[in-house]
User: Which sequence fits this backbone?
């Protein structure tokens, strides 16, 4: 599975990692200017959880994640991803 697919689907993540994942998807444009500490605080978690999240989805750490995920998301064709059953895209 591609790293971007892991982020978009959020599968196999702990509740704390899912919180980081959701925040990242909602704040992609701000990600390049975010520190690991500020991301952790925004997600009510620790920098260790952010690092664990980055590694779980296949990046070596937060800095690589910040750079690569923004590039991957900007190139992605979101229409190719289906919305999970029962979830409205407008909520």
Assistant:
């Amino acid at each position: 599975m591609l790293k971007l697919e892991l982020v978009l689907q959020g599968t196999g993540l702990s509740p704390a990692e899912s919180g980081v994942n959701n925040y990242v998807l909602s704040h992609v444009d701000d990600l390049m200017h975010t520190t690991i500490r500020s991301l952790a605080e925004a997600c009510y978690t620790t920098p260790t959880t952010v690092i664990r999240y980055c590694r779980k989805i296949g990046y070596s750490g937060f800095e690589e994640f910040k750079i690569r995920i923004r590039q991957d998301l900007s190139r992605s064709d979101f229409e190719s991803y289906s919305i999970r059953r029962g979830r409205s895209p407008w909520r």
About this structure: Residues 62-75 form the longest helix (14 residues). Residues 79-91 have pLDDT under 50 and may be disordered.
